């Protein structure tokens, strides 16, 4: 009698490539006498759909790591895979988008036209591949401000525009380098809550660099800590807090315990 065939599901989640896989990454700048090792033997896996925050002392290589993932800085040794491809391929396929500390909006274009910009300069012929700019503005809480010019917006609102613009190509990964670092505390708190909502609504994987331990813990499902000189992984912890988070969670014993633990680790870096 023939044996029953067992169906093998090649799309099983555990077999799918992670969002980002970094293996034995070394990044060196300069050469000869002035060679400088910015990252040494960094290995880390970022699961699909995760929100990973990255923290570490100044100069430990957080931006460098993010830029390597984004194909903006060349890798000296090791490999990076973004959704199973090279960072170059992922960049060409617009699989990720980058949000910087400065919103860098075009001052002469309206909010809506700034968000639409990637549609005009992009290489995707298929406009259905892009999200609807007006819906994105609603998603980031800027409904009704479509016609405003950047100078008419607050810093927090400009950063909301930058996030909407980043989301227009429906990136599967959002790389954020201290996006709220220049904002006042109240605006930053509000945007932190909103980012969690946007993350849940879009299902985008997010890698978020910050200098703030409370911000890293509030946002992160996982916190990646780098140590400096040379830049290397110090810790990669899962944040054991409920996924539904409001700012009030920062007053809980568990939140305070995790931030204290990270602060002690940071002091060793
Ligand atoms: N293009 C470059 N050429 C030479 N050195 C560089 C270059 N980019 C970064 N570095 C150096 O690599 C190290 C890591 O820089 P990086 O900006 O990644 O650190 P960081 O952790 O993001 O710092 P910060 O928290 O201050 O923003 C620093 O010493 C920096 O001076």
Question: Could you give a quick summary of the protein structure above?
Answer:
This protein has 8 helices and 9 strands. It has 269 residues and is an alpha/beta fold.
Write the layout of secondary structure elements.
Layout: E1 20-29, E2 36-46, E3 51-55, H1 62-69, E4 77-82, H2 87-92, E5 96-99, H3 111-121, H4 133-139, H5 155-167, E6 173-177, H6 185-202, E7 205-209, H7 213-219, E8 222-227, E9 232-238, H8 253-268
Helix pairs in contact: 3-5, 4-5, 7-8
The chain binds adenosine-5'-triphosphate (ATP).
**What fold name goes in the CATH topology slot of the largest domain?**
Rossmann fold
Q: Give the end-to-end Cα distance, rounded to a whole number of Å.
A: 64 Å
State the domain count. 2
Query: What structural class do helix, strand and pairing data support?
Result: alpha/beta
State the strand order across the main sheet: 5-6-7-3-8-9
Order of helices and strands: EEEHEHEHHHEHEHEEH
Regarding CATH, which class of the largest domain? Answer: Alpha Beta
CATH architecture assignment of the largest domain: 3-Layer(aba) Sandwich
Q: Could you give a short account of the major beta sheet?
A: 6 strands, mixed
In helices, the fraction of residues equals: 25-40%
Count every helix, treating DSSP H or I runs of 4 or more residues as helices. 8
Name the overall outline: globular
CATH superfamily assignment of the largest domain? P-loop containing nucleotide triphosphate hydrolases
